[in-house]
Amino acid sequence: MIAGSCHCGKVEFQISKEPQWLVSCNCSICRRVGALWAHLPADQVSVVAPKNGTIEYIQGDRMLAIHSCINCGCTTHWTSLSSEPAATMAVNFHMCDQADIAKFRVRRFDGADSWRFLDGESSEV
Known about the structure:
CATH topology: Metal Binding Protein, Guanine Nucleotide Exchange Factor, Chain A
Distance between the termini: 21 Å
């Protein structure tokens, strides 16, 4: 079990399965919030936050909602707006301990242009 939280601690998450890798994306929003994403099936992530404890930002193609703590502003996770039952979501590993981050390979993803990993390996985000 790996856990993370925003700076003030009001938004917390736990993941029950380790991700294959972490993703550093250069799209317009990810580079601005400084996210380091771990993509997981939504049913393997538990997010605990007070009611109305996050603000959702929905942009572009309106496929996901990026959540930030309403109190300290840290971007903690994103959720899919898809109605598919096996939806994916992501948690921002920059909210975790440095030791947890160090366990994983970080892959750079070109979300700004080619929509591919820059290491040449093919895999879905």
